[in-house]
Amino acid sequence: MQSRTCLECALKLVGRKDQKFCSDYCRNSFNNRLNEDVNATVARVNRILRKNRRILSKLNPNGKKSVNGVKLSEEGFNFHYFTNVYSTKKGMRYYFCYDYGYIKLEDNQFILVQKQQYIQ
């Protein structure tokens, strides 16, 4: 009969034949190590999205405001990251970071908006 060992700590396994780990701790450690690169990427993107949302929220406390793109950049806004895009019937595109969004106009001007209930 073949001896089975824990994939994390190499201790001998006793019990079910399909068992891979000796404990929940070893199972969690193994999976955390396996996914640490993915988790780091997701955490980095989430930090950027949360920062973008904080900036939009700070600059737009009343639901709608016009602001210069330089001001957004000075605050550290990253235009490459957003959670969704809303296209109007007229073809205008609003970029959202969760519930706060913006649309770019001419001359580096932006209209900041807060998502309304009817916008999905």
Terminus-to-terminus distance: 59 Å
User: How many strand units?
Assistant: 5
**Number of folding domains?**
1
Give the integer mean of the pLDDT values. Answer: 92
Radius of gyration: 24 Å
Alpha plus pi helix count:
2
* Strand percent estimate: 15-25%
Helical proportion, percent range: 25-40%
Strand order of the largest sheet: 1-5-4-3-2
Gross morphology: elongated
Summarize the biggest pleated sheet. 5 strands, antiparallel
- Tell me the series of helices and strands, N- to C-terminal: HEHEEEE
Low-confidence stretches: none
- Structural category: alpha+beta
Give the SSE map:
Blueprint: H1 24-59, E1 64-68, H2 69-75, E2 84-87, E3 93-97, E4 100-104, E5 109-114
Antiparallel strand pairs: 1-5, 2-3, 3-4, 4-5
Can you summarize this structure?
The chain is of the alpha+beta class.
List keywords for this structure.
120 residues; alpha+beta; 5 strands
Summarize the structure in words.
- There is one protein chain.
- The protein has 120 residues and is of the alpha+beta class.
- The protein has one domain (24-114).
- Helix content is 36%, strand content 21%.
- It contains two helices and five strands, in the order H-E-H-E-E-E-E.
- The chain has helices at residues 24-59, 69-75; strands spanning 64-68, 84-87, 93-97, 100-104, 109-114.
- The chain has a five-stranded antiparallel sheet.
- A hairpin with a 2-residue loop joins strand 3 and strand 4 (100-104).
- The longest helix is centred in the middle third of the chain and has 36 residues, at 24-59.
- It is elongated, with a radius of gyration of 24 Å.
- The model has no long low-confidence stretch (mean pLDDT 92).
